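Per reviewer request, we include the raw input and output of the structure prediction for the construct analysed in the revised manuscript.
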Amino acid sequence: MVDVTLPEGVQVFERGWLSSNNVLFVGKEGCALVDSGYCMHSAQTLELIEAALDRRPLDFLLNTHLHSDHCGGNAALQSRYPELQTLIPPGMARYVEHWDPVALTYVPTGQQCPQFRISGVFEPGAAITLGGLPWDVLAAPGHDPHSIILFEPKSRTLISADAFWEDGFGVVFPELEGQSAFEEVAATLDVIESLHPLVVIPGHGRVFSYGERSLSTARRRLEGFAKDPARHARHAAKVLLKFKLLELQQLTLTDFTAWALVTPYFTLVQQRWFPDVEAASWVRELAFDLARSGAARLEADTIFNA
């Protein structure tokens, strides 16, 4: 973590991929956690939280959005803390209440998320007390239509989730499905600029001091994707492949390709953006791209995470 000052009662657990960062709050109103990471890292998440709370209970769990790397640890935390109140942004609540892993994107992306319950929603435009301080809840569509960010005005601390990273932002999933969302990413970046935070806690990566460089980097990246949506689609497909490699660590290239071909998001992206390329060849080409970039390693017919 860089040399930044967080508000009192706030602790950030910077997690490696597959998990999102976790933000822990301790205040008179109770103890709260923002985002719970991926399910494969649930044991480590529990260890981190239990050590930090030192036998105090976790009272509240908030999810910035419902991608598997941000809420995959919900079920484990609810099992450990039976009285835990879990709040999510509105928009997907009905799919959690009537558990629909297709609508929640876990089946289409080929990712895991154990079923969890919710206690309610927290609405953009409201404020929520965390660590004894009021945090503004702001809509941040783009990466996910229902995502929120949190801002504490006194310290000017921003929890940006996947709307804003030090080197960009998360995959713009609605664009892959044929919905216009690059403009929403731009609008969210405008909101962040208007807040002029001092400290940013991103969904992935280190906590950083806000500056024009990071915002300019995000806007240049967005401009490039908006000019060439197929480039964004190819990037997104490689991100999903890398996620699976992180999860499994190694598998044969044949099995890797077969997995992708039965995972709906790959079919969607290939048919929408690369219909002239045979699907299996396209997946193998992406795998070779990962290897060339150093994100994977190929040995004979086996692909390894790198």
